[in-house]
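Board notes (copied after class):
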Amino acid sequence: MNRALIVLDVQESFRARPEWDRIADPDIAEPVNRLVRLARAGGDLVVWVLHAEPGSQDVFDPALGHVRLLEELEPPRPGEPVLHKTSHNAFTTTNLQRLLTEAGVRELTVCGIRTEQCVETTARVGSDLGYRVVFVTDATTTEPVGGLTAGEVTERTEAVLRDRFARIATVAELEASKV
């Protein structure tokens, strides 16, 4: 196994926020599930990452019960790590790098919620750590940020990652390449 799928923050915390009605793709679980099935079929490691802010008393506080995968997601299988992070990227506050190293992973496929935040940051850090990174743009979602529409945020993210930190791909492209 030299590849891993990193599923970032596809969690009920986001659905519990008032901003959920502005999210670009409320059906994000569907493309993520396709990637999960593809990764499992290829024998790749699937790593689930949840954002938590213990003691914050908001939707990211695990004590309130929202820090769990979206119910529409295929559940993690035995051996698939479920990590809890407190930073934007999935590396800094978890043992992700150790898990990937022990598994011999050299390529990461990343997807999840907040295209320009946690998914992009994880892609950048992963690239800096020497992993080949595939950013699956249509298996991410976000909301409008700083006067930009969600679509503009996604376009900007693709532009800054492309050919520097990650290869940009779609779920359909990855499915076609596995046939």
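Comment from the instructor: The domain at 3-177 is CATH 3.40.50.850 (Rossmann fold). Residues 98 and 147 are 38 Å apart (CA to CA).
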